[in-house]
Amino acid sequence: MSAATPLPDSQPAPRTDSLTQSRDYSRFEVWAPLARTATIRIDGAEHEMTPEAGGWFTLPGIAARPGQRYAYRLDAAEQWVPDPRSLSQPDGVHADSEVVDPSALPRTPWAGKDIRGGVIYEMHVGTFTPGPGGSGGTFDSAIERLDHLADLGVDAIEVMPVASFPGDRGWGYDGVGLYSTQCSYGGPAAFARFIDAAHERGIAVLLDVVYNHLGPAGNYLGMFGPYFTGAHHTPWGAAVNLDQPGSEEVRAFILGNARQWLVDFGLDGLRLDAVHELQDDSSRHILAELSDAVRAWEGETGRPLVLIAESDRNDPRTVTPTAEGGLGMDMQWADDIHHAVHAWISGERQGYYVDFGSTEVLQRTLTGMFEHAGTFSTFRGTPWGVQVDPASQHYDAHSFVAFFEDHDQVGNRAIGDRVHQLISPEEHAAAAALILLGAATPMLFQGEEWATAVPFAFFTSHDTELGPLVSKGRIEEFAAMGWDSAEVPDPQELSTFTSSFLDWEKVETPASARMLDWYRTLIALRRSEPDLMDPDLSRISVEILEHDGIVLRRGQVAALVSDADHEVRANVPHTEVLAAFGSPADEERIAAGTDGEELALSGPGVIVVRGRA
Fold first, then answer.
1. How far apart are CA 120 and CA 404, in angstroms?
2. Which long-range contacts does 301-304 make (Cβ < 8 Å, 24+ apart)?
3. With a threshold of 0.85, does the pTM exceed it?
4. Angstrom distances, CA of residue 2 to CA of 9, 53, 220, 270
5. What angle do CA 30, 34, 38 make, to 5 degrees?
6. How far is CA 561 from CA 94, 338, 534, 558, 605, in A?
7. What dihedral do alpha carbons 85, 88, 93, 94 form, nearest 10°?
8. Which locations, inside or outside the cell, does it occupy (predicted)?
């Protein structure tokens, strides 16, 4: 490519119409301010494009038709590259793009759903169902299991990233085609069918999107424009350009992507990956701009739309409205709740669990969402976080997402083993009760509800150059943590992927069926007991009992978890829901102390009762 014309310090306003109306999918156009000329190849025929203001190139007089294949060549370069805003890459991230018009995809009317406080279910499409001959699942095969989620009581599915990535298997966080849908999952038409099928069952669909970086293979954005900047750095290298020259169109690129998913595809929300790496020193943070745009799209679509942030900052400003100086997210993940429950139940204390594990920490996180709230973090070596205000008028308990398992907390273990495999079924049931009867918006990870024995490993399908580097890095990472390198599965091996397929044939085995029934019971209780859906942070309390037992109170509802070796009792004057793990004798002692009506029993040591006023 010939030398690029430098970008001026002051850029014109972006020409994209991402905030006001849907993209015109009949137009061939591309933003390439680093190029002097641009050529498009459509089904083999080449056309010179017309330069326009702001670094855009268009193709007047030729309309884009669904199914056409096309690619771009910039200046005198020999390489043809896909469209940065391609919706489909049928032959992979290095090949030609395919024209798709989402308005032509089937759509069933859907009024939307408020999912704050509801139950979210995190799903990885490729492993949620197995495919033939060792291939992964697809959106169409996932549709076949949606009745299971409806029966479970799930309110929303959170789909792990589907942006096109290299190869046919991976977690999706190395995606490079942010507007496109991974072809091995079925592409955009299959995704639309999945969304439609979920909506028909009353289930909202959220999508995990990654705006903080792109993967290393198939990332051609830097050839087109200043999508990245060396002014900021991230764990993946140069940061996405949100505040340097040319950033106006980069920000519009992100907003346009969000609009495509929420408006054009009819999704109900986005989960934003690691927003603390969206490094933005501009006067208006990209998250605040996105939040305000989504509020406008709610009015346009007549549906509630939700933004969920994964943030490492432990800062309630993330879920504070933009009008009050916040970033305007509807919810944020509360990792500290996971750490507190996990460390308390499992006994693990290494790494970032070092400050967790006691009942006192469990008490603080279940009531205040964060353990590190201006306090010293041993793992980080510095004070961390900001305290949540229980009297805040700008956010509440439903503004935080809690979970016992998720893709990170399982998949980033050396062998991808499930957390519930480390503990007894009674302890698993108790941990589930703390999450599903707790105050935050609960989230489950696929297969957790029936205590699946299959791992969720880290898997990739990179090329012969990048793949060995990923495998080597994975071994070195866990060797530094004391793991035997022989135990760490090679992410490039097909068997690492196929071993992570959910074992649906095991759902009806006695142990799995019992756990599944327990999860259904807890979710039904959450819906039926008004106190369990109360988002008021001031109406949450945790009492620490002897021998490390606790009682979690939600208004007039209490959830009790006890040490299996000791007798514990709860004396709550009104309605109470108790979850305890221990021996049958412990159950009898706990039940005898409640003077209540038994609601549910799930295996030895787990009991739920409602006390009398």
1. 12
2. 301/112, 301/262, 301/263, 302/111, 302/112, 303/110, 303/111, 303/112, 303/268, 304/112, 304/113, 304/114, 304/115, 304/268
3. yes
4. 21, 20, 16, 38
5. 45
6. 53, 16, 20, 10, 10
7. -90
8. Cytoplasm
Q: Per this entry, what is the length of the chain?
A: 613
Q: Is 240 left (phi over 0), alpha (psi -120 to 50) or beta?
A: beta
| φ, ψ of residue 27 in degrees (nearest 5) | -105, 135
Please, which residues have CB within 8 angstroms of residue 346's CB and are 6 or more apart in sequence?
A: 419, 422, 423
Single-letter residue type at 566: H
Model confidence pLDDT, tens digit, residues 458-517: 999 888 788 787 767 776 666 555 556 667 889 999 999 999 999 999 999 999 999 999
Q: For 113-129, what is each residue's pLDDT tens digit?
A: 999 999 999 999 999 99
What the block records as the tokens of 138 is: 């697809």
Q: What is the DSSP letter of 143?
A: H
Q: Among 253, 292, 572, 605, which residue's Cα sits nearest to residue 425?
A: 605
Q: Dihedral (C-alpha) 446, 450, 453, 454: value to the nearest 10 degrees?
A: -20
Kindly tell me if the per-residue pLDDT of 568 is higher than 70.
no
User: Does 8 score more than 50 pLDDT?
Assistant: no
Q: How far apart are CA 290 and CA 144, in angstroms?
A: 34
| CA pair distance 263, 276, nearest whole angstrom | 26
How confident is the model over 243-278, as pLDDT tens digits?
999 999 999 999 999 999 999 999 999 999 999 999
**171 phi/psi in degrees, rounded to 5:** -75, -30
Report pLDDT for 479.
57
Strands of 557-561's sheet, edge to edge?
540-544, 550-554, 557-561
Which candidate, 161, 278, 257, places its Cα nearest to that of 212?
278
> pLDDT by residue (tens digit) across 137-183?
999 999 999 999 999 999 999 999 999 999 999 999 999 999 999 99
Measure Cα distances from 263 to 18, 107, 228, 260, 386 in Å: 11, 12, 27, 6, 34
pLDDT at 480: 55
E strand or H helix at 544: strand 540-544
Contact 126, 137 (CB under 8 A): yes
What is the residue type of 111? A
